[in-house]
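Quarterly update from the structural biology core.
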Amino acid sequence: MDIPNDYINIPRTMDFLLFEIQNLFPTKPGEKTRGMLTGAKSGNYFAIGLPFASIWVWPDPYAREQGYAITPLSPQCCFAALHDPKLKQLLAITETMRVAGSEARLWAKAELDKILTPKPI
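Predicted structure, tokenized:
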């Protein structure tokens, strides 16, 4: 069976982000620095908020925001997130899971459902 290149298995992607990303690509906030906001408080699309979340940033000396540095999942995250708001949301959820793991799982699932669940026509 051929699967088109543009097909993404949403349930498996969500399982990976909710249960595996923090084990394969863990990160911890470092020193306070300038950078691009990411994580649970990186925009108004995180309505619930997380009580343990601080402001996290991907280090960028030219950014105005300040927060605790986390290593991006990929060096291209900042550039990609600047050009794609939906990707920025997904990366912020991903970064929250990388840092907080199971503590953020219920919140992350609710956010992923909003973004990834197909809307009825």
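The beta strands are 32-38, 56-59, 66-69.
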